[in-house]
Specification:
Its EC number is 2.7.13.3. One of its GO terms (molecular function) is phosphorelay sensor kinase activity. The chain has 837 residues and is of the alpha+beta class. It has six domains: 87 residues, no CATH class; 97 residues, Beta-Lactamase, CATH 3.30.450.20; 100 residues, Beta-Lactamase; 82 residues, Signal transduction histidine kinase, dimerisation/phosphotransfer (DHp) domain (Helix Hairpins), CATH 1.10.287.130; 154 residues, 2-Layer Sandwich (Heat Shock Protein 90); 125 residues, Rossmann fold, CATH 3.40.50.2300. Helices cover 47% and strands 22% of the residues. It is elongated and about 140 Å long.
Amino acid sequence: MKQANQKRHRYRNTALFVVIAASCIGAFLIGIEAIRSIRSNVRSTTVQVIREITNSKSQMLTAILNDTERDLRSLAASLDATMELSSAAVLLERFEKDHTISGLTIIDHGGKALYGPENAYLLKGIPEGFAAEVEADGFQMSDPLIDENGDRRVLFGTALAGDRILYASIPTDSMQKACGETTYLGEGYSYILGKDGKIVVPPLRYNYEQVYEDIGNLLIYADNSSERVQAFIRALNSGATGSVVFQIDGQEQLFCFEPVYEKRGWQLVTVVALNAVEKDGAQIISTAVAMATVIIGVVVTALAAGSFLYWSMRRKQQENDRFLLDIYQAISENTDTVIFILNARSAAPDYVFENSGRILGIPAEEFLKQEQQEQDSAFRSKLQAILEEPWPSEGCTREVHTYNERLHRDMWLKILICPFLLGDEKKCLYAVTDVTQEHNDREKIAAAVVVAEQANAAKSNFFSSMSHDMRTPMNGIVGMTTIAKRSLGDQDRVLDCLNKIDFSSRHLLGLINDVLDMSKIESGKLALVCEPFDLGELLLGLEAILRPQCESKGQTLTFTVNIRHLRLMGDTLRLNQIFMNLLSNAVKFTQEGGAVSFTAQELEQRGNSPTFRFTVADNGIGIAQEAQQIIFTPFERVSNTAVHQIEGTGLGLAITKNLITAMGGQITLKSAPGQGSAFTVDLDLPMQEGELPVAPVAEAVTLDETSFAGRRFLLAEDNAINQEIAVELLTAYGAKVETRNDGKQALLAFTASAEGYYDAVLMDIQMPVMNGYEAARRIRTCGHPQAQSIPIIAMTANVFTEDVLAARNAGMDAHIAKPIDLTKLYQVLKEKMDAAD
């Protein structure tokens, strides 16, 4: 029995030893396999994360360069559509202000700078043939060049019409900073490489480019085999995607590479030290080895140690998973792309970025739990169908247009599909980006291009018509001048020619004023004044002007006024322009013997601003319905053989409508061919708070050789012809005139004169050395006894409302527009000199 017990004990000991030994060996083998598996999983997972980060940075940098190309091409299109250099300069300055691009320069085919510095240091280093590549493709980007500060910059070239090229540049540092200066929590850095591994943009962290021109020399110098380096260079040149390990500074470094901006054949290469990649795995591995040693050494605690090892490994794995999830979370919070990672077994998402709720309106939990709400069925079904489609063999991109019920809006989604292996498991990455704004911007740009083309076509037609209309009175001026020269002995004939020249000149002036008014309106610089006036007097003046015109054509003119408040506030010049335009058109387009009527009604009063309705009606030729659609449009003229003999700019009604709109009113039209037209204007005009001063009645002016007798004027005018005209007109009526060629000379002449020597100063505005505004201000403050009292009259071609206000602000007493109306000048001078006396 004892022997049997001993035998049984030996058997148990042997069995226990075998079990313990087998357990130790099994634990040892399991530990080794676990270490290998952990190392593999940590490396492959982290490498994949770095590759995804590299891919994301590559796409971001490609998008930046594509956006830069798109913006420069769009700018080039705008520059090609701009006729004036000043407008082009405004576009270029605004573009440079709104973008990180600098050094905008336009060079013609001869190398002359049309805009920007002609001898810019950067432009001297343009590669040979770069301009030809720009002209061939319309756009080109260079490898980095060195600017005058020794910084590296990428040069862009965009072709313009007329063999011109628009150059611009950005610093290479901004390309690195745009997609992040560091990688993998600050452990890594990135290169941008060109063909054959040439270092295009070095990392901000290590400026190797000071020593090495290409990555191959760097790697070979670091004792890597030339065969592996050449294989790496070939992979870069082929545009491949992948990762490889090299030695640098005695440490293994992981290189992940992705193509970036394929037009240049560039590659984005991310470098991270392997010890940084595997440091978490190394901790797990060391723990596993320690636990395996404990299991082998302490057989009694093998199972307990095994359990402890299992739970320790699991805890470490959870920490590693949490670490990876933190990386995914950080990426999710800082990008507008939703990432889905699907597995091949169930085609269900393993992971969804948390930003899906913000971007798609569907929380990540709904995707992970495969929940689908009925109200989201259309959008979710479409998105789910895309996720369930068979995976492509290689990465691809597609765009989807759909309506998102959760966000209540249309969406354009750009979906990048990229299958990959995570360890031995097949996965597929779906990167879903909302590109709705980008798509809408493209549509807006396309629509703007169409509108611009239509506007250019309309302007071309307008200028073609204007060429005829302006040459007609010009022909009258030139022709009548020629006839007058040949008829110097025939005073009546010369007088007739001069009258016709005067008529043609005034007609030409009207055409020019219309074009200038339209220019002011289109540039948004139209200014209105608000001054007291009497509406009754304004209407009486209109009737006095129009009645002779109607009587000459045998037409009946009727004025009907039903207004309670006559003392109002407004811009009388522009009101006169509105009514005169409508009434003149009615007279022009009404046949002889027809009828023209003007009706003024006060409709209602809201606060201190009554509403007035003014109607201009006639029984003339009328306007067709299709013509009524464009009659208020600038640069559009009605095509009608019945009005071809009637000259004009075609801008009158466009100007009229814009003036009415600026005053807060509206204009409507009722018309039919052969039945006449009726234009109705509704305006709110504020009443005056006090009594309107009674304006003196202007006496009829008859000028003779004594009108300016005893008066001496100081004339500041830089144009010799204008000087001669003013001197001749004034001296013909008894005045003495002293002339100066600029504002400074006029200032010196006035300050040196005795008190009472000059009776008035006639001041041009645009002059060399010192302009008229500055001269007037200095005269008013010079300390001369007459400095504050002498009349200063602006005589200028600057005729807009803001020009009149500028003259007043400079201290001038009145404003006379060129061409000079001598009667008006006499009235102004008499009024101001009488007041000064």
